[in-house]
Design a protein that fits this description.
The protein is mainly α and 542 residues long. It has a domain of 378 residues: MFS general substrate transporter like domains (Growth Hormone, Chain: A), CATH 1.20.1250. The chain contains 25 helices and no strands. Helix 1 packs across helix 15 and helix 5 runs antiparallel to helix 9. The chain is globular, with a radius of gyration of 26 Å. 49% of the residues are buried.
């Protein structure tokens, strides 16, 4: 798609040229204009402009269809950009965006699964340094995820979507490959933290980018990005199963680096996969900066140029519907309505959404560590530690999540259901699975309960990751998504610490109490969701 790397850096130079030639408000602000910009003058320019009425089809929207005097100038401009994306539909550019952002979701759980799969062999090799205590490895990775989600969440709104999109996979791939060469446990923990830092920014960035380039009638594909997550788990499990048993020592007493290379080969492989994704993002595909981000930064001319570039990438013969003349006309009309106060709907939903995220994400993280395994042991569930059984159970638990994500992506577009009701139902059912665990008394029961929980969790997450970016405006969309993700990452560290005192003696009764508490807390999630003030199905984002 890209003839040379030089074209990537030429884009910014071209954008400056367009901005300088953009007319009276070539800088794109559109906040001030001469009084001569009358409605008659605007209509005359529209009829003769290259992207004006002459290029419209019979079904195309017009300026008057889009303009809303109750919205801000930036929101009206953003609605015009959304209309352009709706008109061009799902082209080559949008398909590439969806796939590459899906790869970000893929490596999120690809790497999240890795510490649990390599930890036994790591403990054997570094036993003289850690004496069996491997907790710092997972803590370092989780800390990196938390910092990465927070940092890149804000970076995507400050430096832009484009470079954040590149940096997350670059950082994760470089440190991922380096992790296989760690000479001691402390070094491995530090590298794991940097891997987590890169991985942590993926979901808020990728969900934001996908949302801002898709047409409105294809926004279910934001939810469908979660299809890549269970694939990441399965691929990581398959790689580990193929490499670790073959190149593994049997105990700490006989373990050396030379006879225990399996976990290192696994990390090398995961790092190379991540590097290939970075290469595809940076060298093969040319990501254009999000027009919504550019509008939020006052760069109207650049935003309009991006629309033209996407049309060319899609090999479309259409011309853009709107020009800066439309932006100036919107400014003129809004000036006539100045003084009218308006509270954005996203502000209304903000508090409820954050509370809902905190409640849900704190409960679900019991499944991301050894806490659930300890609870089940306390209940008398026999643990078959053979490698074959372990990986078989991983497949049985995580594979159904693929179908749950697909089902969730389809359900959000069902009339009278939408995002909100689908999340209410799925979160209530998910909470009930904690009580199913109280009935599990065998490995088969544990696998069945875990698979059920993961299916419902995947269904919920697919909708949640699509819904959160939709309710925030483009100026803070990445920051809001990053903060929501940060809450989840913090919960993954805090939840086990909060749960441990409840079953410190590891009795069956204490295990039941921990499960009852987790289920009860999670039941607050559908209650919070029910009070969200509005849905987003069919709404244009701005």
């Amino acid at each position: 798609m890209k003839p040379s790397q030089a074209s990537r850096f030429a884009d910014s130079k071209d954008d400056e040229t367009v901005a300088k030639s953009g007319g009276v408000d070539g800088d794109g602000t559109g906040d001030t204009y001469a009084s001569s910009h009358s409605a008659d003058g605007w209509n005359a320019r529209r009829s003769s402009s290259h992207g004006g009425e002459a290029s419209r089809g019979p079904g195309d929207v017009t300026f008057d269809d889009i303009f809303d005097p109750t919205k801000t100038l930036r929101e009206n401009k953003s609605m015009m950009i959304s209309a352009e994306l709706d008109r061009m539909g799902m082209g080559k550019y949008q398909i590439c965006i969806w796939f590459l952002c899906g790869c970000g979701y893929f490596i999120d759980l690809l790497w999240a699964q890795a510490p649990g799969l390599i930890v036994t062999q790591v403990a054997y090799e570094f036993d003289d340094q850690i004496h069996g205590s491997t907790g710092p490895l997972q803590t370092a990775f989780s800390t990196g995820l938390t910092v990465g989600a927070f940092f890149f969440g804000f970076a995507v709104d400050v430096v832009g979507r484009r470079w954040s999109f590149y940096l997350t996979t670059f950082i994760a791939s470089v440190f991922g490959i380096a992790s296989g060469g760690a000479r001691n446990f402390d070094t491995l923990c530090v590298i794991a933290a940097f891997i987590g830092f890169g991985i942590g920014g993926n979901i808020p960035i990728d969900a934001t980018i996908t949302l801002e380039f898709l047409p409105t009638n294809r926004r279910f594909l934001v939810a469908a990005l979660s299809l890549f997550q269970p694939l990441g788990v399965l691929v990581c499990s398959g790689i580990s199963y193929g490499l670790i048993p073959k190149y593994a020592c049997e105990s700490a007493a006989t373990c050396t680096r030379k006879n225990n290379m399996g976990w290192r080969y696994t990390l090398y492989t995961l790092g190379c996969i991540t590097w290939l994704i970075f290469v595809a993002r940076f060298f093969i595909f040319t990501l254009r900066e999000s027009p919504q981000y550019l509008l939020a930064r006052g760069k109207d001319a650049k935003a309009l140029k991006i629309i033209q570039q996407i049309l060319r990438t899609n090999k479309s013969k259409m011309e853009p519907l709107f020009t800066q003349a439309d932006f100036r006309e919107a400014a003129r009309r809004i000036a006539e309505h100045q003084g009218r106060e308006r509270v954005s709907r996203w502000q209304t939903a903000k508090k409820s959404a954050r509370e809902m995220l905190g409640l849900f994400l704190n409960a679900k993280t019991l499944f991301r560590n050894k806490t659930m395994a300890r609870i089940l042991r306390a209940k008398g569930v026999e643990q078959d530690t053979s490698i074959e059984t372990t990986y078989r159970n991983y497949i049985l638990i995580y594979f159904p999540g693929i179908f749950a994500v697909a089902f969730g992506a389809a359900m959000i577009e069902v009339p009278k259901l939408g995002r909100q009701r689908a999340m209410v139902v799925s979160s209530a059912l998910m909470a009930s699975t904690f009580f199913l665990f109280t009935l599990a008394s065998s490995t088969a029961g544990y696998v069945a309960a875990s698979a059920t929980e993961y299916m419902l969790q995947s269904f919920f997450n697919a909708i949640l990751y699509a819904f959160v970016p939709e309710i925030y405006p483009s100026e803070v969309r990445g920051s809001a998504s990053g903060l929501a993700s940060t809450l989840g990452r913090i919960a993954s560290i805090a939840a086990p610490l909060a749960a441990d005192p409840l079953f410190k003696d590891q009795t069956e009764q204490q295990a039941r109490h921990a499960l009852y508490l987790a289920g009860s807390v999670t039941f607050l999630c559908p209650v919070a969701l029910a009070f969200l003030p509005y849905g987003t199905r069919g709404m244009r984002v701005y």
